[in-house]
Amino acid sequence: MPSYEIAMMIRTMPKAELKNTLMRVSNCIFDRGGIIRKIENLGFRPMPYKTSAHGIVHREANYFVLKVDTGTNVVSDLKEEYSRDVDVIRQRVYKVNQESTDQCSLEEELLPPAYRKEVQKMIEVGKTQVNRFTFKFKYNSGLDYYPFQR
Amino acid sequence: MALIRNLSMRSIMLNMKKVFISDVRGLNSEAVNDDLPVEMENPYKKEKRQCILCKLNINPDYKNYRLLSQFQSPYTGRIYGRHITGLCKNKQEAVEREIVKAQNCAYMPYFYKDKVFLKDPRLFDPENPVRSHRF
Ligand SMILES: [Zn+2]
To answer: CB atoms < 10 A from the CB of B84, how many?
Structure first.
């Protein structure tokens, strides 16, 4: 089961109701055989842009991030379920980022163009192409006259 | 008196040094030619330059929208290019990807920078890009 992060915005409501909503949201995942690793509360704050959902314009929201392990086929099902939920303003599902172990390539990028690997590759490719500026058509027809209209 | 003591100290140190050198020469008696150039790494070699995110080992994340907003223009909300931010290719790509995610999740505005973050320390100077641009 791959791990996902569900970023969820829940409408303004008192704490007891919010608890109920979170229970409902997480039960959806449990019913489909998923696991919740963590629920992060990013707090209640004004949204950077107003959002209209289920006929109401929202300007503030409770931000939550659920770290979830579920099957891949469940994700679209969950999205559909949450889109029908009146308390959920907005939801996004992202795969958890892999830790990248790449080294910094800034030093190679700051070299003069002739020393950069990608530029050298481009020059190599250019050598295999026809040069438009020096190309001359060859009439290898074997005839001693030109068969076409000039 | 102090002078004499100093002199005697120096003579002792010199003697010790001689003994030490002779010991070392005794160990590898074949390579004793002092005139040959010494094999060593270039002492004037410059340190490898790194971008700020690689140096501090930070992986940009869409939940850390305060960091991401530092790569956003305060006037238009657009993401600064690689010639301004001075990031390496991978990190710049990651930053752009995570900013789009954060904007989608309504953590970050699209067309302006959050006014709370306007006085954050600047990681780079947009007025002095590495490569000049027409704006
Ligand atoms: Zn880097």
So the answer is: 19
Domain at A3-95: CATH code: 3.30.70.60
Q: Answer whether B108's CB lies under 8 Å from B102's CB.
A: yes
Q: Cα A49 from chain centroid?
A: 20
pLDDT given at position B30: 58
Beta-carbon separation of A105 and B88 below 8 A? yes
Share of chain B above pLDDT 70, in %: 76
Minimal-distance CA residue of chain A relative to B130 = A110
CATH number for region B52-117: 4.10.640.10
3-state secondary structure of A68: strand
Exposed, middle or buried, B13 (CB in 10 Å: 0-12/13-18/19+)? exposed
CB contact under 8 A, A92 and B104: yes
Give the distance from residue A6's alpha carbon to the nearest chain B alpha carbon, in angstroms: 10
Q: How far, rounded to the nearest angstrom, does the alpha carbon of residue B48 sit from its chain's CA centroid?
A: 7
pLDDT digits (tens, 9 = 90+) for A1-58: 889 999 999 999 999 999 999 999 999 999 999 899 999 999 999 999 999 999 999 9
Are B72 and B99 a contacting pair, CB within 8 Å? yes
Confirm if B16 and B22 have CB atoms less than 8 A apart. no
Residues of chain B positioned with their CB less than 8 A from the CB of A109: 88-89
Q: Nearest to residue A6, comparing CAs of A45, A34, A47, A48?
A: A34
Q: pTM for the full model?
A: 0.76
Q: How many CA atoms lie within 13 A of B120 on its CB side?
A: 19
